[in-house]
Amino acid sequence: MKLFPQRISSHLLNSGSKAATLLSFLSIMAISTSVLAADFSVTGESSTILRFRTTVDSKDLYPAYEYLKLNTSGKLSDGSTLGLYFGGWGRVDLGDRSTDKYSETDLQYLYASYRLANNNTSVNIGRQFVTEGVAAEKIDGLYVRGDLIAGLSAAAFVGKAVTTETDLQGGKAIYGTRVSLSNPNIYSIGLSALKSESSQNARYREEEGFDIWLHPVKNIELTGRSSYNSITSNWMEHSYTLSATPLKNLNISTSLNSINYTDYFYHMTTNALSLNNGFIQPGETMNALGVAASYNLPKNLTLSADYKRYSYDIAGDADYYGINCKYSSPEIVTAGFGMHRMDGSTPRLRYLETRLYALKKIGAFDISADLFNIDFDNKISGVKDSFSLTGSGGYELNKQLKLAANVEYSRSPDFDREVKALVKLTYLFDTNIGQGGNKSEK
Amino acid sequence: MKSKILILVLPMILCCLYACANTRSIAVTHPEAVSGIPDCNECHTDSYALLNHKTPDFFKRHGFYAGTSRQACVSCHSEGFCADCHAHKEEIKPADKFADSPERMLPHQGDYISQHKFDGRTNPASCVKCHGRQNNQRCASCHK
């Protein structure tokens, strides 16, 4: 199952300063070329958020956040597109400055992208989120994909893994590929692989995967993936879903998930999900078999029901089942109701979960309410009902500027009573020169 | 020697296969403006119709589509849309950050401090994609 040679010279991947210089150069190229392009657009979103909350030890916190997303792209005369994309946030606590953690920043993504008008060719360089088969990774590096002949396509990425090393070290160099064969309306079969090395060039992650999408007839679709851990020499996961639409408004789906814990939870960076923490049981296997059905009634009403059976080799089994009802008419009201029962083998896993929400727009105003309740069969820390009630209101000052606020009141086994509030000012900006369009941030 | 020849020949074969493909790229930006939760069936009759976001299990399947046909996703969604949930570091859970949009299928509804113990017990693998190797600093507050 090894699709890669044992090792790639990781020093090539760890040259951070060279990569930063290259990214800067490409960014300048991307911006200047975009500016010179016939169709040029700059879109973005700024969200300024102020939160109010109290910690368990009764300390008041007033963190203020600024989230910024910026997209620049230009269409060149040959139909290709060049863009630069940035997302990041910063936070400072306005109340508590007693520790050195009163401020924080994070670069979510920053990459230059070049897309050709043919062969679905993309070349991205910088910090980005790569999703190719077994890989769903943030990397600082290079990503390339393109179509080949006869329905084949290929993608590859190489770079440095972007991880948070809360308790344990993450991988350093990371690289991977996916090759697929597809007929756009009938099937797609993909093979993918991912390899990551630690700072000592040791084997950190080696995963291979198979994915399939089948659409043999109009009303049936099969999606699924299996992934294999080459270091532990066993399957990590099988995940498959079969969906059918026998009637125009009726959708039925069945799903099968199987997880081998020893192979799946291999080399995490937090103790919470590591195999030696006492929570994740080594040797455990989870199999989940689910079925769901939904029916769209006229007048924007959708009814659905679902059932999932969790089976374990070591722990006891559990059943999760319930119904959902949703009404969606943005001009009038959007509302939803859901009720689910969890029947597990331990007292903590026997509860009734209920959710009720509604959203109403009145001109430039919108108001919403959201109730989430869990009714335990047996009290946990003296609490029978855990619930949170959130009320929100928003006002669009104009098409670009919106002010929103929400207050949440909750009670749970962990907090007797907790009140949290959030105020958010969102500014959307969109500059188009020529015929360039924009994309949704929501 | 054989591996060196392979390393030289493979890129040449790939270049030939690429040059002969001549497929038309998916639109960088969706030609029609889409708002709300889209039902792709309204316009598409081909495989794009299957991306109907209103089906009850689309939220669970969206990761599969992202891993196999990301080009279709980015026609409508910017990278920032993914980063709202799939963050490197994040301090505000998505359901709090977008509490004014309760109709969105955002993870971690309600009081998730209590709820995560149940989800972590029934299916801890569901935590891994977002918290296994990133965005897990808050875990250390309790999980020493």
Brief overview:
The complex is a heterodimer of chains A (442) and B (144). Chain A has helices spanning 16-36, 261-264, and strands at 39-54, 60-61, 63-75, 81-93, 103-115, 122-132, 135-147, 152-161, 173-183, 187-197, 203-214, 220-229, 234-247, 250-260, 285-297, 301-312, 318-329, 333-343, 350-362, 365-380, 383-396, 401-411, 418-433.
Structure description:
The complex is a heterodimer of chains A (442) and B (144). Chain A is mostly beta strands. Chain A has a domain at 320-427. Chain A is 6% helix and 63% strand. Chain A is built from two helices and 23 strands. Chain A has a 22-stranded antiparallel β-barrel. In chain A, strand 3 and strand 4 (81-93) form a beta hairpin. Chain A is globular. The two termini of chain A are 39 Å apart. The termini of chain B are far apart. Chain B has helices at 2-21, 58-68, 70-73, 79-83, 94-97, 112-122, 125-131. Chain B is mainly α and 144 residues long. Among the domains of chain B are: 35-77, no CATH class; 89-144, no CATH class. Chain B contains seven helices and no strands. The radius of gyration of chain B is 21 Å and the shape is flat. The model of chain B has no long low-confidence stretch (mean pLDDT 84). Chains A and B meet through strand 1, strand 3, strand 4, strand 5 and strand 6 of A and helix 1, helix 2, helix 4, helix 6 and helix 7 of B.
Helix and strand content put the structural class of chain A at mainly beta
The SSE order of chain B reads HHHHHHH
Q: How many helices of chain B does DSSP assign? A: 7
The gross shape of chain B turns out to be flat
- Ends distance of chain B: 51 Å
Strand content of chain A: over 45%
Secondary structure: helix percent of chain A:
under 10%
**How does the overall form of chain A come out from the CA principal axes?**
globular
Kindly name the structural category of chain B. mainly alpha
Number of strands of chain B: 0
Largest sheet of chain A: 22 strands, antiparallel, barrel
Please, how many helices of chain A? Answer: 2
Main β-sheet description of chain B = none
What share of residues of chain B is helical?
40-55%
Could you tell me which chain pair has the largest interface and how many residues each side has? A-B, 150 and 89 residues
